[in-house]
Amino acid sequence: MTTPNRSVNNGLALGTRLKNLFSISPIVVVLASILLVLIMPAVIFLFQSSLHETQFDGSFGAFTFQYYVDLLTSDQFLTNLINATIYAVGSAAVAISIGVLLAWIVERTNTPGGGWVLIISIISLGIPSVLYTISFLMLLGKVGPANEILMWITGADAPLLDVYSLWGMIIIEGIEFAPLSYLLLSSVFRSNDASFEEASMMSGAGILQTFRNITLRLAQPAILALLILIFIRAFESFETPALVGLPGNVSVITTDIYESIDEVPANYGQAGAFSVVLLFIVGGLLVWYNRLSRNAERFQTITGKGFRPRVMDLGKWRWLTTAILAFLFMIIIGFPIGIVLWVSMVPYYDGVSLEALKLFTFDNYRTVFNSRSFHDSIGNTVIMGAAAASIVAPFTALCAWLTVRRYKGAWILDQLATSPLIFPAIVMGVAFLQVFLNLPFGLYGTLLSIILASMVRYLPYGMRYSYAGILQIHTELEEASSMSGARQTTTFLRIVMPLVAPAMVTCWLFVFLVSVKAVSIPILLAGPKSQVVAITLFDMWENGITNELAAMGATWTGFMTIISLIFYMLAKRYGLSVR
Amino acid sequence: MKRTLIAKTGLFVGGLALLAAASIPATVSAQSILTYKGKDREAKLIAGAKKEGALTIYSALTVNQALRPLADGFQKKYPFIKVDFWRGSSRKIAQKVLAERRADSLVADVLEGSGLSQIMIKAKSVVPFSTPYANNIAKQYRDENNLWVASRFSYFGTAYNQKVIPAGTQPKTYADLLNPKWKGKIAWRIGSETGALLFISNVRMAMGEKAATAYFAKLSEQGLINFKGSARTLVNRVVEGEYPLAIQIFAHHPVISAKKGAKIGVQMMQPVPSVNGTIMVPKGVKNAHAAMLFIDYYLSKAGQNVLKKARYFPVVTGINPRKELTSITPRLANLKENYVKPETLFKLRKTSQNIFKKYFKHGKTVVVKRKKKKKKTKQ
């Protein structure tokens, strides 16, 4: 009896589904196709390359599982996995410790000078990671000031620190992530209800006890989510492992990927297998992170009742927190920038000393400004960043608008545009390398190839900004527009675009800033004529041209800091998040 | 709607294909000019290079020491050619050129490096060329199929920081390197054809496989530091005191640094491994005329003197290296030399790589060693 009924129902459902499918707005279909064309070949080629033998000329050979078998049966892979885990956990611990300390001092106490911490965030967004890492190598290296001071204190006659090691990687990466950790934690600390802390103090607990039992406890879910976030980002990071780990014989998965491609002939298959494994690990971690950050909302501390954040009076302890603040400021920004400036002013670097002061010269800056390769790489970088940002900003604005206004099928756009998030940058580089190597368009080594890959890489970031911007706009204005007879396109161009413009500008600046900083993608894709600043700095370090590197890095950082400052002012003005 | 979409996609793809087809240059005449031997060769080259107007060199020469002066000298002679160069290790050059060829977007016009030729030949990615200047080079330093000619000689030695290791107390032989006092102090280059790999190949050739294997097992106990970066950078690190000792570095690099006042010395260990750099033309070269003009210049007296002035070792007979290099030039200093031909270098490469992987790849990572010990106790 029930069978025919069910089949009728099924038929109906199928009909509606088909109808729904056909009624998907054409613009959604077009955008989704563009996204698919951009993303799918990379994914397909990545998997293909890991499942086929790599021939001498780089082409695909016979089908094989060998690369996966090699990988899973090798001791080294396990070692590198352990290395990567220790490195990522350590970096997260360092970053969060500094972040908690900074956020607490700035947000919850009456320590003066909290405004200065903003400078940390601005400069840290402008400085290329390569240069930042290198600055620490110079600070902590055998002839660096850190070792000099330690030798002076302990009276040892040989350097005590060996920065080319796992701990070196952890410290450097941890400090690099400290500004992010501070930014995310400061909002949590700011919104904590002060009455808990007051109650604790009233009951006789000291400052430290209150901090431990109340402030930290309240921030616990946020700290845990941040821990995983930094863990993932360190786990998939490339710059620090390559510059610090490789010379010290500490390899992690990302450097293994790079080294497989650096072999002759390039072992694309091995790189592919490593990449796929890393992709799954990071994907799994991201799922976990999303779950945790969703749960984090359950620990909301801002409630309807009399909420008023208040700072704690530290009394005589203020001098101590001021000193800590100043010290952290120096570690995160002062010393790294200082050493880069120093090295850029001396003819050769063998430590910081008074004698070297006599040698001070602007020669390095002169060489750098006069060299054509410097001009080319700055030009390329600006074009690359601007192009990627100029495509990502309007494109994601359109996708976000369609999604927010619930156009039929627009959820696909949201899913597709945020999917690159699971690709670690180096994996994205490998995937696009395969695309450009295997497609007969002669794109390999061109600036366009880097632009395309960067664009896909930063789509999710663009989505986040555009989404937030569009959510702020009420539909009334658009309804008024269509009531007056405007078509969809006109409404989008004349009503929506001007309204989201500030969000788009901020989005543009953010994508520009992060794409010009990145190393992982251009290091695999750039050719001699498409060098970008981050890669030039990387090569200069490998080729031992340290002083010119410092001059170039200092100039570039100055320029990027200005752009970063504009970004901050805009983001603040329009109430958008800065990360 | 769908149909127009398909049509548009079709048009787009078709357009891209057309673009790609148009970008394939006419290389028909390239091969003939590369091997052209007529009397009007130079005139033809200059006329052709004027039309091309550009040249890109990939070389492993250190930029500020040799590559930039050479490019500048060439640029001065032929101002109508826009010269670009890119410095990479032989390995990086090979990897880049192979990728460029695979993606059909070749950029390089001339290739130069030690340990580069055989990889390119195996990948069938270089073409024969001929230049009258090759006649000034001894026959053993030229390829019989005209795929490469020697571009420079390199001799390898051990650099030591004289602040840490006073002159006279440095290790002097390969056996000295096994002395426990050097444990954790010796660095060598990985990721290069002439670094750790050539060291291993040289020791194998000098001692024979059996003795060499025993030597490597002992050497691995010394905890060698695997340095990734150029040879020049490694010597800089020795100057800076980052590493006290660096084996298998280009012997002239410390000499150049010492001349500038750095406290660094070089010790030649016998037999001294030596190789020759090779200069080549990639298959599918876009600026063939300019490429040949550059090779001519490089091997001419002018070019070789630029190398000499930069304290490198010229290959042309009759031009000796500078005086301060005499003590590190085996044939002039009466040192036993082991000249490793490009073919031999390449032949031993794979097996030496295996030896490297077995004994040295992760010398310092403790976890692996522990694991191995565990396995032994299980057995």
Could you characterize what this model shows?
The complex is a heterodimer of chains A (579) and B (379). Chain A has 579 residues and is mainly α. Chain A folds into two domains: 67-361, MetI-like fold (Orthogonal Bundle), CATH 1.10.3720.10; 363-579, MetI-like fold (Orthogonal Bundle). Chain A has helices at residues 2-22, 26-51, 66-73, 75-108, 117-126, 129-140, 145-154, 166-190, 194-202, 207-235, 239-245, 253-262, 268-296, 318-345, 354-357, 363-370, 372-404, 410-418, 425-438, 447-471, 475-483, 488-517, 520-525, 533-542, 546-573, and strands spanning 52-54, 60-63. Chain A has a two-stranded antiparallel ribbon with strand order 1-2. In chain A, α6 (129-140) packs parallel to α11 (239-245), α17 packs parallel to α20 (447-471) and α21 (475-483) packs antiparallel against α22 (488-517). Chain A is globular and about 80 Å long. Residues 1-8 of chain A have low confidence and may be disordered. Chain B is an alpha/beta fold and 379 residues long. Chain B folds into two domains: 27-153 and 276-324, Periplasmic binding protein-like II (D-Maltodextrin-Binding Protein, domain 2, 3-Layer(aba) Sandwich); 155-274 and 327-363, 3-Layer(aba) Sandwich (D-Maltodextrin-Binding Protein, domain 2). Chain B is 45% helix and 17% strand. Chain B has helices spanning 2-22, 28-34, 41-52, 63-77, 90-102, 117-122, 196-207, 209-220, 231-240, 252-259, 288-299, 301-309, 330-333, 342-359, 366-378, and strands at 54-59, 82-87, 110-113, 126-127, 149-161, 186-190, 225-228, 245-250, 264-267, 272-282, 337-339. In chain B, α3 crosses α11, α4 (63-77) runs antiparallel to α12 and α7 (196-207) crosses α8. Mean pLDDT of chain B is 86; it is low at 20-28 and 363-379. The chains are: A mainly alpha (579), B alpha/beta (379). Chains A and B meet through α2, α4, α12, α19 and α24 of A and α1, β2, α5, β7 and α9 of B.
